[in-house]
Amino acid sequence: MSKTHVTTSINGEPVEFLCDPGDTLLDVLRNDLQMTGTKEGCGSGDCGACSVTMNGRLVCSCLVLGVEAEGAEIGTIEGIGSNDGLHVIQEKFLEHAALQCGVCTPGLIVSTKALLEENPNPTEEEARYYLAGNLCRCTGYDKIIRAVLDAAETMREGA
Amino acid sequence: MVSVVYEAPDLIEGAVNLLAKSDIPAHVLAGGTDLIIQTNNSSDAERLIVDVKKIAGMTDANLTDAALELGPSMSCASFTERDDIKAVYPGLVEAAYLIGSTQVQGRASVGGNLCNSSPAADTIPALIANGAQCVIAGPNGERTVPVEEFVTGVGQNCMEKGELLKQITVPRPAANTSDAYLRFIPRTEMDIAVAGAGVSVTLDDTGTCTAARVAIGAVAPTALLVPEAADALVGSKLDEAALQAAADAASAASNPITDRRGTVEYRRQVVGVLVKRAASIAAERAKEG
Amino acid sequence: MSEAREFKYIGQRTIRPDGFDKVTGRAQYGADLNLPGMIWGRTLRSPHAHAKILSIDTSKAEAHPDVFAVVTFKDFGSVEGESINAGEGAADVLDLARNCLADDKVLYHGHAIAAVAARTERVADDALALIEVKYEVLSPVLDVEDAMKDGAPILHEDMFTQGYEETPSSPSNIATRLEMKMGDIEAGFAEADVIVEREFRTPTAHQGYIEPHACTARYDEDGQSLVWCCTQGHFDVRTSTAKLLHIDLSKLKVVASEIGGGFGGKTVVYQEPVALALSRKSGRPVKMVMNRDEVFMATGPTSAAKLKAKVGAKKDGTITAMQGWMAYEAGAFKGSPMMPGVMTMFTPYDCGNVQVEGFDVVVNKCKVAAYRAPGAPQAEFAAEMVVNELAEELGMDPIELRLKNAAKEGTQTIYGPKLKTVGLVECLEAARDSDHYKSTLAEGCGRGIAAGFWFNIGGQSSVSINMNTDGTGTIIEGSPDIGGSRASMQMMAAEVLQIEPSRLKPIVADTDSLPYSQGTGGSRVTFATGMAVIEAAEDVVRQLKERAAAIWNVTAEQVDYVDGVAINTAGGEKMTLAEVCEAAEKTGGQISGTGNINARGAGPSFAVHLCDTKVDKETGKVDVVRYTAIQDAGKAIHPSYVEGQLQGGAVQGIGWALNEEYIYNDDGVMENPGFLDYRIPLASDLPMIEAIIVEVPNAFHPYGVRGVGESGIIPPLAAVGWSVGNAIGRKVEELPCSPPRVLSLIQNG
User: For labeling, which of B163, C74, C364, C694 is most exposed (least CB within 10 Å)?
Assistant: First the structure.
């Protein structure tokens, strides 16, 4: 089976890879590029653990083919925060104890970043609906929503 | 050994050619939110994936004085951000907004929803209520089919080998007309519709309904246009009796099954409730408009 | 702990030490380890719920050029039925083996039959289709009523009901019958002015952790075998895996990866022995990751149950008798949590006349596993519903009724001991005094209240604290951190050592690095492993004193240790902890404390929940509009993570009460094995969950800790169930309160 050569950008860096045209972007990230920060919870777009951005849109990487990344800009959890420190969203998740097991956390942080870029001042209800596709089984969402709203406020103040 | 061939043509003709000439099972890839799950579970040893999102017009929407010309592969996220479209077809935009999570919205499309041809597709009743048409390109040229005739069965539609949905055309509604779409799901998000209802109503100056279209989803093998329900609304001021008559007509027209998402009895009842509520919302909107 | 004390670090809301890795995606979970030369394993599963396996032909799969190994039950060699400690409680090795790979019968849809290791996951999947299995399909048994009937198809010809004076001579699907009683139940009911009695049903519900089971295994002939996996108890994974592969414990290292949720469901092995068997056969490392549908179909949910509850009381609200009956589905092999169901059912009440009978019943469904307070939510649901109805019949406030009959210190339990100090009364008072309970119920809404009791456990925990020359240290524990427990370990050690928590790094060590530690379950980690941490830290302090004494040439008794500083009471000199550690080379070598314990004295945790719901009367859809969870933590080491346990437990219970259920067709095929149709709560389904921590210290823990992980899932079933019934003027008897069921209740009563 011949593999397809793909040239893309991940977290602002040029990346090339070879993949089977049937492989999902999630497979490529995790298995070929060793970027295991993006998690797989269901493989069917129902849990949001594999959330990444593609050309600025929040998507489930399990529902994108690796070959579709050609020429696209992909954003993953590995691109959030830097050597200088954590992103405000990450800090707020820690401050509010918005994670227990932590496996849904990368997806939630990617999604929260997308939310706050679209809507810097979400209501609780807007945040809850925007993040409805990110399942968390540990927290009951309370502390996540508090962290998201606090991050939004902090980011607005900093803007 | 499963072998997948991926093509991303930049012209309709190219896509039609690939689809028409493929000697292995061929699938059109729009947002992939259904297709990738289906092909992951497929036993086809070989398949061709034709990604149509590089084709000009497939991911855009153009709102003219006459109609909405919708690129079938435009993501729901892009579609629902269009305030100009939402002002004219609030119910259709609501239906598109209800498909899946934010993440799924980033990929899923109205055309994909239509071509997947699920009985529970949210946009199909809303498209039918708005009298939408499918423009289909194929090896023998183009043809146009009303949405209510496009889907022919569970997961089946009228497209032949080599054909591709090129555009969805939604005519501009008449004056004092508006629409609404409601679906019932057990949770607040993320579920497949247990029942759905798309309603479009036109009112005159006195608030009397002069025209209506009622379409229901997830209660039969395909979404159904229910003229009896529309008839119950036309001529009324959408009072409780008229709404209930429309609800009863919708329940009577439904032909649901019992599955993991609902029972026959439940779906029959709830689809009526949705018709009633959607008709009220559409009427309110028509008055405001 | 006898009196309230001031803490320096305990009770603060510190940043968890593993947090940075988890918010950046660096933390490695079960599926995140890749080894050089690694291949992928996939599992062939039964399409039938009940069938004899006539033959398995793996030759075509083995002949595939990219397939390296195929294993079946035979690859486990000879397996004897014996009891081992496998996760939460004992398990029969033969059952465990037959659940990992079916022997002569498949007992549920999704039951593993064979596994293939191949170059890629996709090839392994494809190769499964090359395995030919011939079945003789048998009638499935799908619920306890059918399973208990005379003439029911029998799952295990060698199973005879235990628990009667005389063991029956014919095989049965009833594995065990258990009765517990005290007082005189008949006299108790005779005394009653009001009696309430109902039957209830609860569905099969899954833990629903977001991370699927995953492992990577590498077999080595020289005794360096490795299993990396997400588990709540890696020492128990080692025991089970070593037993099935007939290798010594010392020759298998199990590394607990970060774990993406478990709630009891990751206490037993499924793939680990299979992956190691594939590795042994192929000579390569093998990774196995379950798909989501496999998680639902073939790992342990908790029991569906049928229950009866009957309570009697005098007009003044004094409860005179409580009686219960329950039949729990165990799934394909014996071992439902029926016993804790029997034990917990009426424990929140101080009543002298109690009788409860339970049955552990096998059916053709996946074998159940522990799920947060295993067995208690079902039983206490039935009990709390009838207690609420009793309050209604008596015209009493349901909290006042509970306060009047609340279990407290000295209350006799049905299972033996009298309760020590417990906080049920305090939780009920907190509920009564809460803003929520004082608030007026909105039009069209209903309100429910329920209590919950769970024992909590102690058990074996092993901890070392290794001090570094700069005065920092590493806390080495053996309890996988499933919800932030590293933070609590860090704080408890810091409290003893009187140094900043951030100077201590807690790690979860592999099975080679520590003595046996029981898994993370039974709400035991902060209690028991916490005690081991405290003991290890006290050992460090003892050594610090000895080392400082050696430098000062005094006795250790002459050295005080205050605020992280050793003080010579004879001479007045001082050395900080860091200075003593730095000098360790000159005083006898490095400093390391140990705490290897079997903790006794776990303190029960009571919970009380309040729930307001709104019901759409035309569709039956339920909306939780307000929710308060109150629970006795003993002492909250890290209040944020305690609140998180209360909130998380509450929401799992809400899901169970509202929409979660396994749906099977008549052939026993599970129809909703995914997050699409197994509907766990979403962010948009819920309000904020108000959490109120009550602190009635547990006298058996140095800081007063009780476990808090489990009790919170118990009350929601009845709090939600009663609330819905209250909103629609009906009595809920069956969960979940899914829209069709609620609409039917509204319309048909």
Answer: C74
